[in-house]
Amino acid sequence: MKAWGSRLLSLAVAVGFCLALDAFFGNLHQEYLSRMVFLAGLYVILSVSLNIINGICGQFSIGHAAFYQIGAYATGYLTATYFADPRSNKHFALWLEQFLVVMRAHPLLWLVVLMVVGAVATGIVGIVVGLPSLKLRGDYLAIVTLGFGEIIRIATINVNEIGGAYGLQGIVKIHPLWLVWLLAIACIAVSRNLLKSAHGLTFLAVREDEVAASAMGVNTTKTKVVAFILGSMFAGAAGVLFAHHEGFITPDNFKMEISFIILTMVVIGGTGSITGSTLAGIALFSIPEYLRDAKSADGIPLTVTSAALIATMISVVVA
């Protein structure tokens, strides 16, 4: 009974924090600052969800942007085709037409439904990626996931139905700030439960020594697939929020460098550390934005990119 009370209290605090964050930044009337807080929450979700695969389960995946992209494009297409244009559903069944009418009256509810759809879609893709890669480890798994990410991006460029290289437009903008941070807290909570519960011991066992874990009766196949599913589902849900925040997405939003940035957040934050991934996600996103207006002593603007910042931090760590 005491445990349930503690959980309910934690849930109330999390919801209160998200609503307070939304109220504070929503009342500032500064779109730029609100956008930065929104995107920082997305990177927290991406870094912590990749930490489930790389840090907790020990699988070296560097194609996380592909799951992010799948969630964004799958649900962005649904919104642009069926939600934004009522004429597109004239041949639907009556119940489906009525469902879309209700959703148009409640855009936030539509976004929540799409988050579920995007999470399920990317979870299925996570199974597709996870199963063939089960016998691969280390660098080989990294190459496969990296190739998967590039295949998804290049395939998107060549599909005109979803905008091709020009991008997908017409997505209705729905961007509640509190929802992205609530999803971030949910992702952190799932990761924490994996580390603190008996179910998470199998993930840690696979990370430490897969052969020994298998010898002790751990179903390593199931464990690795579940890790890919969990990580990809959260990334897909983050993609849904990103697409409906921007209103327009292109394949360039999900380039290879995005996967490397997310991986760097996990590594610098400490592989397997939830707190480290969270703080690194916020810091590595915020610092380049803060330095965007940096100037030299002569007043000349300095060019500071995420790639340059990450290269500098890696050099410091190696040194």
Biggest sheet architecture:
none
Quaternary organisation: single chain
Determine the fraction of residues in helical runs and give it as a percent range: over 70%
Note the beta-strand portion.
Answer: under 5%
**Cα-atom radius of gyration:** 20 Å
Please give a quick description of this structure.
This protein is mainly alpha-helical.
What does this structure look like?
- With 319 residues, this protein is mainly α.
- Helices cover 73% and strands 0% of the residues.
- The longest helix is centred in the C-terminal third of the chain and has 27 residues, at 220-246.
Search tags:
319 residues; mainly alpha; 0% strand
How does the SSE layout of this entry go?
Layout: H1 2-26, H2 31-56, H3 64-83, H4 94-105, H5 107-130, H6 138-157, H7 177-196, H8 199-208, H9 210-215, H10 220-246, H11 256-269, H12 274-290, H13 306-318
Helix pairs in contact: 1-7, 2-7, 2-10, 2-11, 2-12, 3-5, 3-6, 3-10, 5-10, 7-8, 11-12, 11-13
